């Protein structure tokens, strides 16, 4: 028997995503699109989660409005960061328009950073001085600074991109030789 016939039925030229060292969900998840400053997304995710967890540990509050606002914002920031991270790190990125993903990420990062900063400031002004509240405020401020830092990197990258120039209007010569009051 030839070697080709022996191995033909048992070997595959290109194994599928479920075969090999990266199998299951790990085969569909990659950090290759998170280059440069985009790795701040991981830090934003962790800091917003830590801020949310520290806030959830708080058992009593005197002025609860700041706490509830911080709770909503930190949870929302975590979920939005997770959503953007999933889009960047899965094959979903290939199915959507990358320009729209970057544009959405740009505005989500700006909005989340500003609102997180306001929520952290509000919570800092209304907290009861417990260790869990102070830790939540610190993580919230660090997260908001991370969002703002990433936004500034995105803005710098956006300003460096060459903008398409509008085509110059071609003037017709016949109008130039005609008198104005004809």
From TrEMBL:
Topological relation to the membrane, as annotated: Multi-pass membrane protein
Keyword annotations from UniProtKB, A to Z: Membrane, Transmembrane, Transmembrane helix
UniProt-listed Pfam families: MARVEL
GO biological process terms, semicolon-separated: endocytic recycling; protein transport; regulation of protein stability
Subcellular localization: Membrane
Superkingdom classification of source: Eukaryota
Residue intervals passing through the bilayer: 42-70, 76-94, 106-125, 131-155
Domain MARVEL: 32-159
GO cellular component: early endosome membrane; plasma membrane; recycling endosome membrane
Protein name: MARVEL domain-containing protein
Organism: Bos mutus
Source taxonomy: Eukaryota, Metazoa, Chordata, Craniata, Vertebrata
């Amino acid at each position: 028997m030839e070697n080709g016939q022996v191995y033909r039925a048992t070997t595959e030229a290109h194994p599928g995503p479920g075969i090999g060292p990266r199998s299951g969900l790990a085969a569909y998840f990659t950090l290759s699109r998170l280059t440069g400053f985009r790795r701040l997304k991981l830090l934003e995710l962790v800091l917003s989660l830590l801020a949310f967890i520290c806030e959830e540990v708080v058992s009593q509050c005197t002025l609860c409005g700041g706490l509830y606002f911080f709770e909503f914002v930190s949870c929302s920031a975590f979920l939005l960061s997770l959503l953007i991270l999933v889009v960047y790190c899965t094959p979903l990125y290939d199915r959507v328009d990358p320009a729209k993903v970057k544009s959405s990420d740009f505005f989500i990062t700006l909005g989340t950073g500003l609102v997180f900063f306001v929520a952290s400031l509000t919570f800092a002004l209304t907290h009861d001085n417990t260790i869990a509240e102070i830790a939540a405020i610190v993580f919230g401020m660090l997260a908001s600074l991370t969002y703002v830092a990433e936004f500034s990197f995105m803005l710098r990258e956006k300003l460096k991109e060459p903008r398409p120039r509008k085509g110059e209007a071609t003037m017709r010569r016949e109008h130039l030789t005609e008198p104005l009051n004809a």
